[in-house]
Design goal:
Layout: E1 2-3, E2 10-15, E3 27-28, E4 31-32, H1 33-46, E5 53-57, H2 66-76, E6 83-86, H3 93-102, E7 109-111, E8 115-119, H4 134-146, E9 151-155, H5 166-169, H6 176-184, E10 189-194, E11 201-205, E12 208-212, E13 235-241, E14 247-253
Parallel strand pairs: 1-7, 2-5, 5-6, 8-9, 9-10, 10-12
Antiparallel strand pairs: 2-13, 3-4, 7-8, 11-12, 13-14
Helix pairs in contact: 2-3
InterPro entries: Calcineurin-like_PHP (IPR004843), CNP_phosphodiesterase-III (IPR050884), GpdQ/CpdA-like (IPR026575), Metallo-depent_PP-like (IPR029052)
Organism: Thalassolituus maritimus
Keywords: Hydrolase, Iron, Metal-binding
């Protein structure tokens, strides 16, 4: 458990799906992922928002190499606030954990004055879809029960709701109902935040706010039957977690840099 020092409002930034390679020039569908991430981080640097924590929600790497995680860690060293990682389907657990442990990035429960953040691992090794192990569900249940006065933000990589996109919904969280049942049983469960879908969404189910965030590289076109890329820019999400449980949030996208996407590909 990591204890954050924050004011009455907890301020958080989410960066997701960086898809880095060990080779700094590596490209995903034509996009140099290291350059696109650095462009997003440069926009974050200019954004007037003093974050108490930075959350990186999976698919940190595309090739799973140790060097890709070191490139990410080096890029994030510029921030004074703590940085926390969780894995996605493209990540190599051993290398992510090796670098993440060295840099103290792997805390599962992060607590502040009025909020706690629970970082869940939805990775199934060798699969694109996600599944929360019973130990992850137990961890969430315990955190919600232990601190009923703390509003709770749950983070994971895979989407726990349908995105109205046939190909994408086949690779979402398989046991989403188990997660949603736990959240419904606890009044302090306020929101869920994820990556994986390379697009932004923001809504409510049974009073719980549900949010996804653009990738720092390629974007997927919403509500499509088959794999399709979108023309919108990469970005990040900011969140203000207020002491009364309210959430202010928004997505900031690149405005002065663009990257050409290879549309001849049918997957990634």
């Amino acid at each position: 458990m990591f204890q954050l020092t924050s004011a009455e409002t907890l301020r958080v930034v989410q960066v997701t799906d960086t898809h880095l390679f060990g080779d700094i020039g590596g490209k995903l569908l034509g996009v140099p992922t290291y350059d696109s991430m650095q462009a997003v981080l440069a926009q974050l640097d200019d954004f007037e928002f003093s974050a108490d924590a930075l959350l990186v929600t999976g698919d940190l790497s595309q090739d799973g190499s140790e060097q890709s995680y070191r490139l990410l860690d080096d890029a994030l060293e510029r921030y004074q606030s703590p940085v926390f990682w969780l894995p996605g389907n493209h990540d190599a657990p051993h290398n992510l954990e090796k670098v993440g442990r060295e840099k103290d990035r792997l805390h599962k429960v992060i607590r502040a004055k009025h909020w706690q953040i629970v970082m869940l691992d939805s990775q199934v090794e060798g699969a694109v879809f996600g599944q929360l192990k019973q130990s992850e569900l137990d961890l969430l249940e315990q955190a919600l029960t232990e601190e009923p006065e703390l509003h709770t933000l749950v983070c994971l990589h895979h989407h726990p709701i349908r995105m109205n996109s046939e190909w994408m919904d086949n690779i979402g969280l398989r046991n989403r109902s188990e997660l949603m049942d736990i959240l419904a049983a606890h009044d302090n469960a306020k929101a869920v935040l994820w990556g994986h879908v390379h697009q932004s969404c923001d809504g409510y189910v049974n009073g719980v706010r549900l949010m996804s965030t653009p990738s720092t590289c390629i974007q997927f076109e919403p509500q499509t039957s088959d794999f399709s890329l979108d023309d919108v820019a990469p970005g990040f999400r900011w969140l203000e977690l207020h002491k009364d449980g309210r959430i202010s949030t928004g997505v900031e996208r690149l405005s002065n840099v663009s990257f050409d996407v290879d549309r001849t590909q049918t997957g990634y």
